[in-house]
Structure formats: C-alpha cells, structure tokens
Specification:
mainly alpha
C-alpha cells in the first residue's frame, strides 16, 4: 500500500454547484407539483359547487383528475421499486469485494492493536516473571535448608540410638 491510511478520504461537495442544484430542484420539481396540486384542488372545488346539470360533467372531470393522481403515484412507486430491484442486484454483485476490503482493514487494525497491547504489557510481564522466578528460587532455598535441618536432626537421633 502506498499510504498507511485506513479510511478513504472524504469528498466534499462543491458549494457553487450544490446551490445551483438546489435552486433548479425547486423550479423544476417542486413548483410544477405545487401548481398541479392547486389545479386539482380547484377542479374538485368547482365540481362540488356546480349545479345539477353541470354537476355530472364536473364530477366526471374531477374523478379523472383524482384517478390521474393515483395513477401518477402508482407509476412513481412502480418505477421506484424497479430501480430498487435493479440496484439491489448490482449491489449484491459488487458488495462482496467491498466487504473483503473492509475485512482486510479490520484485520490490519486487529494486528496493530494486538502489537500495541503486547508492547504495552511486556514490561509488566517481565517484572512479574522476574518476581515469580525470585520467589521460586527463594522457596527452593528455604525448602533445601529445612530438609537439611531435618536430616541433621534425624542423624543425631540415629547416632543416639546406636550408642
């Protein structure tokens, strides 16, 4: 690897183009939707306020507008589901590689953390092992001294019994 970075660099948005995009979004998406919604509401109100003769005509027109709204929503949901299905299949094709990369970085992190923790624990382990070795040597010396004292005591008892 050329660099020792684990995380990729974050890409920042260009503020000029982002602001232009926000303005275009309002004028090209939100404003036409608002105008269409207001027209539909006006048509529904006119259909409700019409007299008996014109009532049927305006009721049919308002019904067409209400059905058209439902149809537009149905088309939007269907297209959205189609895009979702397509991009899910694309994601399933490319995801294993990226998960492998993530797993590799996690393994590198594990190796580094283990190395740092071993480095941090090493002085404590050396001191503890030195102390344990010193205790073992002391215990063996005390044991050998007590065994030799017991042997001396047994020899004097043996000599006394012979005489």
């Amino acid at each position: 690897m050329a660099s020792d970075r684990i995380t990729p660099e974050l890409k920042q948005r260009n503020p000029i183009t982002y602001e232009a995009h926000r303005r275009q979004t309002f004028w090209q998406i939100y404003l036409p939707l608002i105008i269409f919604g207001v027209l539909v509401i006006i048509m529904i109100v006119l259909a409700l306020l019409a007299d008996d003769q014109a009532n049927s005509k305006w009721a049919d027109i308002s019904l067409i507008f209400m059905i058209s709204i439902a149809m537009v929503m149905f088309v939007i949901v269907t297209v959205g589901l189609a895009f979702l299905a397509y991009y899910t299949t694309q994601l399933l094709k490319t995801a294993p590689y990226y998960f492998y990369v993530i797993q590799r970085y996690a393994y590198l992190i594990e190796i580094r953390v283990r190395s740092y923790s071993n480095t941090a624990a090493e002085p404590f382990l050396r001191v503890r092992s030195f102390m344990a070795g010193a205790r073992a040597i002391r215990w063996r010396q005390e044991k050998s001294v007590s065994n030799s004292n017991e042997d001396l005591g047994n020899e004097s008892i043996y000599k006394e019994s012979i005489q």
